[in-house]
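job 3f2a | input accepted
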Amino acid sequence: MMKLGHIQSTLASSNLDNLMNQIKLFNSKNSEIKVSLVGTLATKYGDEAVAMALAAAQKSAPSKSIADQFRELRNE
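job 3f2a | predicted structure (76 res):
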């Protein structure tokens, strides 16, 4: 399992992609228990820290499509 550091580094694109892939793999192997990316992050960092980090990441995203991805995560 991937080790999570500071939330800002976890939200960096390659780290986020790796975490999303691990969650998809977990969910594909576990039909009764499903986890979400935001839920996983909230368990590690807390709801408020995740909300603030996603908002900051959305504002500083290098493109509209990446900002949209962070907005979708915030709405999850």
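job 3f2a | DSSP finds five helices and no strands in the chain.
job 3f2a | closed
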